[in-house]
C-alpha cells in the first residue's frame, strides 16, 4: 500500500555551533556532555568545511539514500546557526555562513541580539534571522537571566535597530521573533513590541523543564499568553513541550547529532559525524519524522510557515 509522504519546502538542520553564551537564561538547555574537554569544531576551518559538506551531501534533496525520505520529501536544506550565542564567534560566523551558502544551504541565525555588529556583518549570507525576545520589560529579562555580565539586556529599541539594519542590507531576509513563555513573562502583553518589530514570523514556545523546574508554567498560563496575542495568529508558530520532543535535526558543537529526550533525560548523542559519516551517525539517534513534518505546516501560498 502506498502511503502519503508529506512534502515540505526545506529541511532545517540546527547546528549549535558553540556552547558559551553571554546571557544566563534560567530555562536554557544548551549544555553538552563532554563539551569542556574538546575544542569546538568551528575553531578549525578545515573540520568545519568537512562537517558542512558532509551534512549537505547527506541531507541534499537529491540524495536517494536518506533514511528520512520514506517519511518526508523536501526541496531545499537550511542550516540554522544556533548556540549558545553564535555571534560570540565574531568574524568566523560570517565565514561559516558564507561557506554554508556556497555549498547550497539556505542559512539562518538564531541570536539573542547582544552583538549587533556581528549580526550585521553576516547579514548578506542569511536567508532568515531569529531574534530571541521574551519581554520589553528589563526587570522581566533580569528575572529570566536574559542579561549580560554587566546586567544589560536587549531592549525593544535594540531589536528594532538590528531588524532595520539587517533588512536594509538584505531586503528579502525573513525576520523571526522567538519568545519563550515562562512564569516570568506569562502575564505580559508583547503586542506593541511585535507591532513595532513587524516580524515575518513569531515563534512562541512554552518553557521546557529540562534542567530545572524554575520558570515552568502550566498549560492554562501558556494558552492565556497565546490567546492574549491572537491578533498575531497569522504570524505565529506555537510549540508546546510535546511538540519539541525528537522533532528537530540538531548537531552539537563537537559535530554529533543529538536529540532532546523526554522529561529530565536531557540528550541522546550520536558518534561524531566526521568519524563515521553522517548516515551512520544519524542512525544513532531517534527522530519522530511525523513530529518533524508537523512543525512545517504549509501556508496558503505553498510556502513553509515555520
Write out key terms for the chains shown.
single chain; 306 residues; alpha/beta; TIM Barrel; ten-stranded mixed β-sheet; 10 strands; 30% helix
Low-confidence stretches: 298-306
Ends apart, CA distance between termini: 30 Å
Principal-axes geometry comes out as globular
Q: Strand order, main sheet: write it out.
A: 7-6-5-4-3-2-1-8-9-10
Secondary structure category? alpha/beta
Q: Can you give the helix content as a percent range?
A: 25-40%
Percent of residues in β-strands: 15-25%
* Strand element count: 10
Total DSSP helices: 11
Corresponding CATH architecture: Alpha-Beta Barrel
**Assigned CATH class:** Alpha Beta
On the 0-100 scale, what is the average pLDDT?
Answer: 87
Major sheet description? 10 strands, mixed
CATH superfamily: Aldolase class I
- CATH topology title: TIM Barrel
SSE string, helices as H and strands as E: EHEHEHEHHEHEHEHEEEHHH
Number of domains: 1
Per-chain topology:
Elements: E1 7-16, H1 45-59, E2 73-82, H2 91-103, E3 106-111, H3 116-122, E4 128-132, H4 138-144, H5 156-169, E5 174-181, H6 191-197, E6 201-206, H7 219-228, E7 236-239, H8 241-244, E8 249-251, E9 257-260, E10 267-269, H9 273-276, H10 278-282, H11 289-294
Parallel strand pairs: 1-2, 1-8, 2-3, 3-4, 4-5, 5-6, 6-7
Antiparallel strand pairs: 8-9, 9-10
Helix pairs in contact: 1-2, 2-3
What does this structure look like?
Strands 7-6-5-4-3-2-1-8-9-10 form a 10-stranded mixed beta sheet. It has a single domain (9-294), classed as TIM Barrel (Alpha-Beta Barrel). It contains 11 helices and 10 strands. It has helices spanning 45-59, 91-103, 116-122, 138-144, 156-169, 191-197, 219-228, 241-244, 273-276, 278-282, 289-294; strands at 7-16, 73-82, 106-111, 128-132, 174-181, 201-206, 236-239, 249-251, 257-260, 267-269. It is globular and about 50 Å long. It is 30% helix and 19% strand. The model is unreliable at 298-306 (pLDDT under 50). With 306 residues, it is α/β, with parallel strands linked by helices. The longest helix is centred in the N-terminal third of the chain and has 15 residues, at 45-59.
Amino acid at each position: 500500500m502506498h502511503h502519503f509522504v508529506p512534502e515540505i519546502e526545506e529541511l532545517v538542520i540546527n547546528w549549535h555551533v558553540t556552547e558559551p553564551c553571554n546571557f544566563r537564561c534560567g530555562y536554557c538547555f544548551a549544555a553538552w556532555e563532554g563539551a569542556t574537554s574538546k575544542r569546538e569544531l568551528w575553531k578549525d576551518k578545515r573540520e568545519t568545511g568537512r562537517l558542512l559538506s558532509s551534512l549537505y551531501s547527506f541531507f541534499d534533496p537529491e540524495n536517494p539514500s536518506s533514511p528520512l525520505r520514506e517519511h518526508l520529501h523536501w526541496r531545499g536544506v537550511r542550516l540554522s546557526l544556533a548556540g549558545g550565542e553564535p555571534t560570540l564567534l565574531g568574524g568566523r560566523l560570517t565565514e561559516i555562513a558564507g561557506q554554508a551558502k556556497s555549498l547550497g544551504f539556505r542559512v539562518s541565525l538564531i541570536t539573542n541580539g547582544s552583538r549587533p555588529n556581528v549580526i550585521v556583518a553576516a547579514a548578506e549570507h542569511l536567508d532568515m534571522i531569529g531574534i530571541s525576545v521574551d519581554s520589553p520589560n528589563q526587570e522581566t529579562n533580569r528575572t529570566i537571566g536574559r542579561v549580560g555580565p554587566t546586567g544589560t539586556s536587549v531592549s525593544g529599541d535594540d531589536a528594532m535597530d538590528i531588524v532595520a539594519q539587517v533588512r536594509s542590507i538584505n531586503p528579502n531576509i525573513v525576520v523571526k521573533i522567538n519568545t519563550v513563555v515562562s512564569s516570568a513573562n506569562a502575564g505580559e502583553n508583547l503586542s506593541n513590541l511585535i507591532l513595532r518589530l513587524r516580524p515575518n514570523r513569531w515563534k512562541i514556545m512554552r518553557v521546557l523543564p529540562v534542567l530545572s523546574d524554575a520558570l515552568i508554567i502550566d498549560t492554562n498560563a501558556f494558552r492565556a499568553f497565546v490567546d492574549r496575542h491572537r491578533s498575531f495568529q497569522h504570524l505565529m508558530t506555537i510549540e508546546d513541550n510535546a511538540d519539541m520532543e525528537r522533532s528537530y535535526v540538531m548537531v552539537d558543537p563537537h559535530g554529533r547529532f543529538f536529540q532532546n529526550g523526554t522529561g529530565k533525560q536531557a540528550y541522546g548523542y550520536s558518534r561524531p559525524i566526521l568519524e563515521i559519516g553522517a548516515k551512520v551517525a544519524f542512525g544513532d539517534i531517534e527522530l519522530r519524522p511525523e513530529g518533524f513534518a508537523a512543525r512545517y505546516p504549509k501556508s496558503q501560498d505553498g510556502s513553509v510557515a515555520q
